[in-house]
């Protein structure tokens, strides 16, 4: 068992399972001996092998050679295609019907994919089509063995780029690694080879494709009578928001009932305009531990929850600070981890 465990370390899975003594081999030059009584033959330099340039030795050798097969992009989403010739791993997702807004779906699926792994949105530029993630830490999205290896720690940040094509009714999603930190048996590393960076980017994009496919399938299923879904998305003004899968009236009641239980004191409301003014006071570490919930990364102070009706019977919830400026996307995505569970639980507890 000990031998099996040792052979399954992340580093050893990358290298060949034989010795590397050949790296010490040297070319032995021997003089051309002319037997006594014979004349030396004429030599031509026409076929001399030129010496190798120093740049030819820049590649990895021996134990540093990654023997794993190349990571391949998966087109698990119906109609999706690999974009050939792109500088980074890229998949094109196509609308499956005339009513599907594939661009909005891709953005919403991406942010909720990150939330699934407890990863925040650090920087979001919808106009530029870029999203910088927080840290993925020891998850299957990075390394399938990471979660079960206590001696191997890894975390990474990614840049997702979404490019919409309204003519083809599609959106291209690309991924690349922004930051990398790895620790094995106490030794830390922050560098990746080009091949390793691409491998991780491919795996992250494949994980997103699997999540994308799951969301499309769940959309086709009948909605459960119990449970109110709360997803990350955008309101009608393209601001980061939570999107509740329920009509405005139901969400209005849910939010008013839920907020006081999480440190928000409701100061004023205006249902006709859809806003709820609150003051937030962090309930403290003990509260969050007892609730088994992720603390909000929100500064104490005054805020406004703005609700808005959306197409498809959904409702957006946008959070503004005291100056009526939208709260950062990173805070919205982090709060979603707890709020989504609270919404589902509140619906399950409902007996009306």
Automatic annotation (TrEMBL):
GO term, biological process aspect, one: protein insertion into membrane
Record bears the keyword Transport: no
Superkingdom of this protein's organism: Bacteria
One Pfam match: Lipoprotein_18
One Gene Ontology CC term in the entry: cell outer membrane
Subcellular location as annotated: Cell outer membrane
UniProt entry keywords in alphabetical sequence: Cell outer membrane, Lipoprotein, Membrane, Signal
HAMAP family: OM_assembly_BamC (MF_00924)
Family of the protein in this entry: Belongs to the BamC family.
Biological role: Part of the outer membrane protein assembly complex, which is involved in assembly and insertion of beta-barrel proteins into the outer membrane.
Assembly behavior: Part of the Bam complex.
Protein name: Outer membrane protein assembly factor BamC
Organism, scientific name: Aeromonas diversa CDC 2478-85
Name of the gene encoding the protein in the UniProt record: bamC
